[in-house]
Amino acid sequence: KGKVDQLSFTRRLFTMDGLSYVPRVAVLIVGELRNFDNKHIMVNNKKWLFDYYNTDIFVSTWTHRGASFNHGHGSSDMGFVGRRVHDYDINDAYSAKHVKGMNIEDYDKWHKKMESEQKRIYHRGFYNNGSNILCPSTAFPQLYKLWDANRLRLEYEKKHGVVYDVVIKIRGDLCMLEPIPVDLVSKAADNAVYHMNPPGIYEDRRIYDIFFFGKGDVMNTIAGAYMNIMNLINNPLDTGRADVNACRLLYLQAMKNNVRVIDIEKSLGDIYRNENYGDYVSKVINVFNCNIVSTGVEGGGGVQQPKYSGAQRSFFNLSKFIR
Questions:
Q1: Given CA atoms 5, 152, 175, 240 in this order, what sign does their dihedral have?
Q2: How many CB atoms lie within 10 A of CB 190?
Q3: Which letter does DSSP use for residue 84 in this model?
Q4: Quick one: which of 258, 245, 249 has its CA closest to 226?
């Protein structure tokens, strides 16, 4: 079996020329799940990603939920942190029909098996985003979980004779506000990885690690960063970030393998930290997408997003990539 030759009869894929091919998409949900079953995250991601495409989900996570070092900054509800993750939680949140593979591991057992030099660097840590908060080097577990989720995807492809057109990596606490444009998914370049890099939080020489995608072979290459992690850490290239920063390591993995890094110059959603939902939407529209001119607001399932005219600049500058 190769591509899935099914057509969608939903409004989203009707075109002036008739029905269009539905790309088959694998979503890798990686690392601590945190507040993944928050109602806004579940509703939005279902509408704008899981149900929007012909999507299968592969989850590689830990038995603990966890929280990022930024997570509490906008949150009045940290009650999810101490709760454990079970397979039925994942099936309930993402719908069992979408979930094709999962691996839930005990973090402490995995940590004990780390090589001694990796443990030393992990506990050496780094200061997060220029703050005075010393964080452990979480790129180790993050990149391991990316590799492992991709392994689940490859095993499923081999067992069931399917091929995914595009593979998307997300965090469990990502909250989409609108879909990836169909043309961007169906026409993804053969040797490129796409990530969000909107004007309000733009950074050069990185792959923003909350959300990125590419064709299967490209994502195999990026997911291989874990197997090359010490070489990437020791690479002398200065990207303005700590040597163990995951965004830096992913970028270096792409560069070493001649994979183009293409900016999506608009935030389609970001990490939702249980803040007031209206504040979250406003932050994405008015801060992250601050230089994109809005001509109005349209709502969808409680989601507000800007509506743009064709006269405004392109959101997706596909000629702009980092070599």
A1: negative
A2: 9
A3: B
A4: 249
